[in-house]
TrEMBL record, chain B:
InterPro entries assigned to the protein according to its UniProt record, in alphabetical order: AAA+_ATPase, ABC_transp_ATP-bind, ABC_transporter-like_ATP-bd, ABC_transporter-like_CS, Oligopep_ABC_C, P-loop_NTPase
Phylogenetic lineage: Bacteria, Pseudomonadati, Caldisericota/Cryosericota group, Candidatus Cryosericota, Candidatus Cryosericia
Protein name: ATP-binding cassette domain-containing protein
Record-linked SUPFAM superfamilies: P-loop containing nucleoside triphosphate hydrolases (SSF52540)
Organism: Candidatus Cryosericum septentrionale
Keyword list, A-Z: ATP-binding, Nucleotide-binding, Transport
Signal peptide start and end residues: none
Residue ranges constituting the ABC transporter domain according to the UniProt record: 15-264
One annotated GO biological process: transmembrane transport
Length: 296, 351
């Protein structure tokens, strides 16, 4: 028997990156909770993309005749004090909320990931300095910082996103730094060094690529919090300004009516609840599926 | 190639007076020195073209650190490493790349030596990509050849490492190490994480590959049976120092250092009658910490011969030099002659 030859691989069993993605999706669907999370997230994204087409009525045009109507056939979520359809406003607000949250996370990832990579990989005094700066940013309460930014730059959704993103990145920097420290003494990283690979190649191709799983999980979990933070800022009047339809801003406007016209604050509030929950379920499901795939 | 030229010795690789130490420091901005560990303490040896030299010793004796220093994963404190006449210590990163493509390393743990997110083909092709060798089509062909050479099917290149067993992964790691046609392979216990049957396959493969590509191996191991089978020459290390260097046959027949004698006494003998009578030397005590190396001979505290000889003071006062006692046989012991006449720790007069 020839001991040095190995039988050919079973073609059906071959695992390629493409099949990995398919198996991740399959794993998400098999778990009922993450399946709910995934479908809700997909639903929110579809609504956000097609908001103007989906919304039954104009979200901004005033219609004082039909003000503060309770939920009914014509207005499923009722109307507000200016007679605008709350359902349409919620639908159109989806786009702003998701885009804003995505913006916050993007700023966080774009700043945080390179800082974490560099700190972890370079080590020594570069690590010390970067991580102390990170600690400083981490010590800012994000809402207070956003209030300060809104006070100086003026309240707008864009400023709210920037202010939140700027205090959000330290979490990603820490996460990635931890992963780098775990990976940088693995044999395959050292092997790449021996081969003469440059630092950028090692950092991105060997280290970052293997840190993506925890990053993706964290981002999907954080998406819900980003939606919530943005709504809070708008509620405080620091984000979206009336008459822009935005979930937090709608609750803010509905405050004075919540005792008599319950639907005004309830439906935007429920939407926020469902959105945050959907992203959390998806994040949890992803964590489970991806860590299982890792342990194999 | 430029660089500091050393005297031509004909050796492929010459390590001289190599010292590697690890300092641990504490504190931010003002760093306080806590302790220094001398992992490799002034060792010298040479590798001839085409030979297999085995570096043996207990865990923590500095054998792996020596290998890592040669491929510039550790920065030596002093000493020199000369590869084909070119000094490697203190080379700039750019030049070091040009040299290191001729020296590659295979690691101990096959489960961490491949990037789990890279397909086998991408892993094996990576050295070619880094050194800009060939077109993508050439590379694909070369990957196929390499996988074939290590006994894997070229179709495996689309797969991810987690689908392979330890032995198969070690084959992939070998293919990757061979991609740039290196002259010297540093094998850091490449089989110690594998089953015995798979170990044999990998060792056979290593022997075949050496023939095929005329490679030189620096084989780091603690498994004396493998060393006896594979090695041309053996370097025995203890606590960062070389204790004995000898051709493999010499070393296993007439070990001259009491430490080597003790190591060999732990090897089982295939003959049952001999095996029954075999006396084993059990070394007492722990290996001293490399942060606090004893004065004199660093092995003296655990040396059976030293105790038998009535604890001569010389051993605790003077560190024995590695000196030539027979042809190609170097030993660092004041009483190496005594070890030879008391095979396996038995005084013939006692029996």
């Amino acid at each position: 028997m020839d001991l040095t030859s190995v039988r050919p691989p079973d073609l059906a069993m071959i695992d390629t990156p493409y099949r990995r993605l398919a198996s991740t999706l399959g794993g998400l669907i098999r778990n009922p909770l993450s399946a709910i999370g995934l479908s809700l997230v997909v639903l929110f994204v579809v609504i956000a993309v097609f908001a103007p087409q989906v919304a039954p009525q104009d979200p901004i045009a005033l219609d004082p005749v039909h003000r503060l109507l309770p939920p009914g056939i014509h207005h499923l979520f009722g109307t507000d004090e200016n007679g605008r359809d709350i359902l349409s406003r919620v639908i159109v607000g989806t786009r702003l909320s998701l885009l804003g949250a995505a913006g916050i996370l993007m700023i966080g990832v774009v700043i945080g990931v390179p800082i974490g990579l560099l700190a972890g990989y370079a080590g020594k005094w570069i690590d010390e300095i970067l991580m102390r700066v990170t600690d400083i940013f981490l010590s800012f309460p994000s809402l207070v910082f956003a209030i300060a930014v809104a006070a100086t730059l003026g309240p707008s959704i864009r400023n709210a996103v920037i202010a939140t993103g700027v205090v959000w990145w330290p979490w990603y920097a820490r996460l990635i730094r931890g992963e780098v420290l775990k990976l940088k003494h693995q044999s395959f990283v050292e092997g790449a060094k021996i081969l003469g690979a440059g630092s950028l190649r090692i950092m991105f191709l060997h280290i970052l690529r293997n840190s993506l799983t925890p990053l993706i999980v964290q981002v999907s979990l954080d998406f819900g919090y980003a939606v919530l933070t943005l709504a809070s800022l708008s509620f405080l009047g620091l984000g979206a300004q009336p008459p822009t339809p935005e979930w937090g801003e709608m609750i803010s406007a509905g405050q004075s009516y919540y005792l008599t016209q319950w639907w005004y604050v309830t439906f935007p509030g429920l939407t926020i609840l469902v959105a945050v929950m959907a992203f959390n379920l998806l994040g949890d499901g992803l964590r489970e599926v991806l860590s299982l795939g890792r342990a194999r | 190639m430029s660089g500091i030229q050393s005297e031509p010795s004909g050796a492929l690789l010459a390590v001289r007076n190599l010292v590697v130490q690890f300092s641990s420091t504490r504190g931010f901005l003002v760093r306080r020195h806590v302790s220094t560990v001398r992992a490799v303490d002034d060792i010298s040896f040479e590798l001839q073209q085409g030979e297999i030299i085995c570096l043996v010793g207990e865990s923590g004796c500095g054998k792996t650190t020596t290998g890592r220093a040669i491929v510039a994963l550790e920065r030596p404190v002093s000493g020199s490493i000369v590869f084909k006449g070119l000094e490697l210590v203190g080379l700039g990163a750019r030049q070091s790349h040009r040299v290191t493509r001729h020296i590659q390393m295979v690691f101990q743990d096959p489960y961490s030596s491949l990037n789990p997110r890279m397909t086998v083909g991408a892993s094996v092709a990576e050295p070619l990509v880094i050194h800009r060798v060939g077109s993508p089509e050439d590379r694909r062909q070369r990957v196929g050849e390499l996988l074939d050479a290590v006994g894997l099917h070229p179709e495996s290149s689309a797969q991810l490492p987690h689908q392979f067993s330890g032995g198969q992964r070690q084959r992939i790691a070998l293919a990757r190490a061979l991609a740039l046609n290196p002259e010297l392979l540093i094998l850091d216990e490449p089989t110690s994480a594998l089953d015995v049957s798979i170990q044999a396959q990998i060792l056979n493969l290593l022997a075949d590959l050496r023939e095929k590509y005329s490679l030189t191996y620096l084989f780091i191991s603690h498994d004396l049976a493998i060393v006896r089978w594979l090695g041309d020459r053996v370097v025995v290390m203890y606590l960062g120092r070389i204790m004995e260097v000898a051709p493999s046959d010499d070393l296993f027949q007439t070990p001259l250092h009491p430490y080597t004698v003790a190591l060999l006494s732990a090897l089982p003998v295939p003959d049952p009658t001999v095996e029954d009578q075999r006396k084993r030397i059990v070394l007492e005590g722990e290996v001293p910490s490399a942060a606090n190396i004893p004065v004199g001979c660093r092995f003296a505290g655990r040396c059976w011969l030293w105790r038998e000889l009535g604890s001569p003071e010389q051993c605790q006062e003077m560190e024995p030099e590695l000196s030539c006692v027979a042809k190609d046989h170097l030993v660092a012991c004041h009483y190496s002659g005594e070890a030879a006449v008391r095979p396996f720790g038995l005084d013939p007069s006692v029996d």
